[in-house]
Amino acid sequence: MPTQSTKVDRAPKSRWSAPERATRGHTRPHRDDQPSQHAVLPASQTFPTADAAPRGFAELGVPGNLVAALDAEGISKPFPIQAATIPDALAGRDVLGRGRTGSGKTLAFGLPMISRLARPSGSAKAPPRGLVLVPTRELAMQVADVLARLGRGAGLSLVLVAGGMPYAPQTQAFSRGVDIVVATPGRLIDLMEQGIADLSRIEITVLDEADHMADLGFLPAVTQILDTVPDRGQRLLFSATLDRAVDRLVRTYLHEPVAHEVDTGQASVPTMSHHLVSIAPQHKAALTAEIASRPGRTLIFVRTQRGADRVAEQLRGSGVLAGALHGGLAQGARTRILSAFKDGSLRVLVATDVAARGIHVDEVGLVLHADPPSGPKEYLHRAGRTARAGGTGTVVALALPHQRRDLERLTTQAGVRPKVLTVLPGDSALAAATGARRATGKAVSDADYQRVIAPPAARRLHSTRGSRGNSGVRTKGRPGRRRSPASTVAGGSPSRRAR
Q1: Structural domain span for residue 61
Q2: Domain boundary residue among 248, 265, 282?
Q3: In sequence order, what are the residues at sequence separation of 6 or more whose Cβ sits closer than 8 angstroms to the Cβ of residue 126?
Q4: Distance between CA 377 and CA 367 in Å, rounded?
Q5: pLDDT of 81-132, one tens digit each?
Q6: Across the beta sheet with 272-278, what order do the strands follow?
Q7: What distance in Å separates the CA atoms of residue 467 and residue 478, rounded to the nearest whole number?
Q8: Phi, psi of 351 (to 5 degrees)
Q9: In sequence order, what are the residues at sequence separation of 6 or more whose Cβ sits closer than 8 angstroms to the Cβ of residue 437?
Q10: Of 265, 299, 321, which residue constitutes the final position of a domain?
């Protein structure tokens, strides 16, 4: 769809007076690389850009070495958000990028950051010059994978800073010098307060999924960090929505940003279909198992941690290999379960809304609302886990009799017109819409499930033992392994993972 761009004017009055802004470093001089001759419009207005998009990354101004690295991953054609934002970001302008989850925002900010910070290989390291703030550990790991892989060719080093992970590698990286920091706000502030993280030389700051950071209550930490980094630096903010909290960030911390909007605020993109399925209470477990038995990856949303565990256990009892992901799990368990879902060894994941904010897997074919979302924004967030990176996807909401009216109103508010079905277990209409099929009924043992989500070393050992004949020579199977964070691109096929 055509993109739209806007030059957003900073509000004449922010939450600080002029003297306070000066002491906090917010009175930024105009940068020579940021032209101001364009008409300035209020944030709510837009004007269309040219419809003719460049044919490749080179036409956007991306350096040849990065274009070659993308080609090696099978990535040659920019997504709309990338085509829209990369030229302005390369020129040093502040950018507000609005696009739904899965629209390709990582490369939209990653390529300009790496291009502008590139240094000769082997040059002396110093305090970091690039900072990317993200809302969750899982997203931080995925962004770090992408940027580390591309950054190595530009002579750049990177550190992943997130809670629930060891301190030592993070503190050592700051001690020896590092170019780019990918961080969750809480752990970064922890390191700042200990005097370990020095942000005094940050040149480019990225806020990724700013609306999700606001939803999770991270904005006080984000503003504390933005008050610390040099005000003269470039700011890139990416968000699916521009609600009041995010708009306040834009108007306070971005300097005359150019805004680009692609597929924002709606879940009903052409490659995504929506279904509202009316069911009887006694059939909910059986129909959930039928939908989960479909081929391909399926992501099931529930409201509570206990509900996630219960539904996953019920599915395994029906013969569906499913795992639960929620905040009550230790970080190591969450990482292993999500890794198994990414590599396809675990096809079905049952997750709470908060835990699922870190799920960025391109090949999720179906999202199932087993429990209704709390509102239209949560519906859109859940739906955005499928039809990512140009793929197709199906979104299904199960509606008990007392839930149907609320779900119909909620989808209308979300801008979605779902197809309405009333089904019983085994109905062909459900199979046609979702690929549902009867579950095997042969329960998945706990031992088999634990082997799938075991640490990589244990998975390799089991695979090796299970695939050798009497001669000791491997005859079939392959060891399971998980790519380490910040060393490779995470999740999905090479042509989609880095996006």
Answers
A1: 4-265
A2: 265
A3: 177, 201
A4: 15
A5: 999 999 999 999 999 998 776 678 899 999 999 999 997 765 667 899 999 9
A6: 322-325, 348-351, 297-301, 364-369, 393-399, 272-278, 419-422
A7: 8
A8: -140, 150
A9: 290, 293, 294, 431
A10: 265
- Which two structure tokens, joined as six digits, stand for 147? 């940027």
Tokens 């903010």 belong to: 237
User: CA-to-CA distance for 339 and 331, rounded, in angstroms?
Assistant: 12
Tell me the pLDDT tens digit for each residue of 207-254: 999 988 988 889 999 999 999 999 999 999 998 877 788 999 999 999
> Tokens standing for 479?
């060891």
**Tens of pLDDT along 420-477?**
999 999 999 999 999 999 999 999 999 999 999 987 666 555 555 444 433 333 333 3
Residues belonging to the chain? 499
487 compared with 433, residue with greater pLDDT: 433
Structure tokens at 304: 């509570």
Q: What is the largest CA-CA distance in the chain?
A: 79
The domain that holds 36 is classified in CATH as: 3.40.50.300
> What CA–CA distance (Å, rounded) separates 354 from 347?
20
Distance CA 122, CA 139 (A): 29
Same domain for 194 and 246, yes or no, is yes
Residue 312 in domain? yes
What token pair was written down for 222?
A: 């984000």
